[in-house]
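Lab notebook: predicted structure, single chain.

Context: the supervisor wants predicted structures on file for every construct in the current expression panel, including those that have not yet been purified. This is the next one on the list. No modifications to the sequence; it matches the entry in the shared construct table.
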Amino acid sequence: MNRLASATSPYLLQHADNPVDWWPWMPEAFEEARRRNVPVLLSVGYSACHWCHVMAHESFEDQETAGFLNEHFVNVKVDREERPDVDAVYMEAVQAATGQGGWPMTVFLTPDAEPFYFGTYFPPAPRHGMPGFRQVLEGVRQAWEHRREEVTDVAAKIVRDLAGRELAFPVAEVPGESELAQALLGLTREYDPQRGGFGGAPKFPPSMVVEFLLRHHARTGAEGALQMAADTCERMARGGIYDQLGGGFARYSVDRDWVVPHFEKMLYDNALLCRVYAHLWRATGSEQARRVALETADFLVRELRTPEGGFASALDADSDDGSGAHVEGAYYVWTPEQLREALGEEDAALAAQYFGVTEEGTFEEGASVLQLPQQEAVFDAERVAGVRARLLAHRAERPAPGRDDKVVAAWNGLAVAALAETGAYFDRPDLVEAAVAAADLLVRLHLDDHARLSRTSKDGRVGTGAGVLEDYGDVAEGFLALAAVTGEGVWLEFAGLLLDHVLARFTDPETGALYDTAVDAEQLIRRPQDPTDNATPSGWTAAAGALLGYAAQTGSEPHRTAAERALGVVKALGPRVPRFIGWGLAVAEALLDGPREIAVVGPALDDPGTRTLHRTALLGTAPGAVVAYGVPGGEEFPLLADRPLTDGVATAYVCRNFTCDAPTTDPERLEAALGD
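Prediction complete. Output recorded below exactly as produced.
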């Protein structure tokens, strides 16, 4: 029986034809384990995961291994992107037991879903100190059949230990100047002044930390914060982590210099980085930041947009190298000979110099990852543009990496915010339209009649997983950005509906602490809860930011109070681990600044004066400022109430806590007020 054939997860569909008798995560799988009196093998991964593909080919496609699995285990396959709650709970157990984690994650459970043995990737035979997968399976079988009491005791202890890890939530005091200054100092200590970024290899794009640095500079004028943000963004934009032909960023760099990436491209990275580079341009006017923001936005629309209007989750790192073998980076890397084939001798020499392609190579087997090692000004810009276009066209003829077409609500919320703002800043209405289409899909397909979110969809069919906290926070953030850009108050209304669920279903009413799953969600061995940011804002900090923005738009005291209570964790963690709570620090910057509320009223939305003031408001760098845009008395935006025109012309009001400075009709005065 092929139980994965109807899945909405591309990762599960990749395993649907394995000889392993896979189950999706469902109660019936554990009931079957009880009936057969066997343990459960839980295998967790995602479609763009290189080592997940390797283990699948080596073990899950092997008839003999599959036969052993089917005889002695109930085998459950989970897409970590579709069920982040399941992934989080068992990854915490893996990391506690082994000191490390990763994917594929391999966990053995009792029929009560209690874990007792852990690992990640296992090779088919012993290798580099790792046991072979068949050895592991045989050892677990022996323990289950002959040392059952010991196994169940271990499992019970692990569950008790996990329960004892409940977050000790601090008294809800908001972070202040001192904590944010300490966080900046901590980042300065970890900053790599030669290469940009923080820490050593592997190096991940620190998008949320950069957002904090930009907001801190805007609020305090700290030049060091801006310098770290700008230099990091420049080094990434020049490095191999950035796709110099097609735009967009790879997942991370395996080295400290941003040269060789892990080539998978994730929606969430590119949405966050698109927005960061747009904000860097807003702060500095950097032409490079403008180019990267627009190229990344164009990459999102060109390569990740789905027919339904949403955005796919990822592009694989691996692709066919032309020989039938799937090789990491094959789509993106170049040898000098390949340049000559595509361009001819003369232009190939230019491309090699411009993109840093050498005979020795920077990657594997003499291939190079394209970079920008030299200043572009020394090259003929028109000729380089022609070479770049020809290389991009030539690359398009290569076998393309696989695409995970799953639409994840949270990551689409991040894309909505990025595309809406980038489109507004650079007069690209097509990008705003793409943001609106994705938001429409989220409302039409992912929201039910009670405004509850589903986590995923694929091909217009909604998945079975319930939305988690990050879905509610990030989608609300996207809707708030879209409301500010379009002047359509319906997006503010939808954000409010989502945030009401955050207050009612994800928040501890006693402490204000937030949980990753709703109070009425499926009960796992523990209720997951993690305030630290990872590759994306945590659900906790995403919700805090959206709650604060919604409160600034509406004057809602419950939402403001919830945001402040949630930020208590930033007060505790910001000075200690600033790299891992960057979005929380960015939200705290907005709180300290107000955030400012900007109401722009005009005789009509398309009135030139109104549009000029609106654009000026959007380009203000005040941390977390919210913008309401419409005609006087526009009921959809509470900020517009009692805000009249001045002598019949468009007028802007800058407020904090709904208390406003003197109105202005002058864009320069508005700009000065927002930079104060």
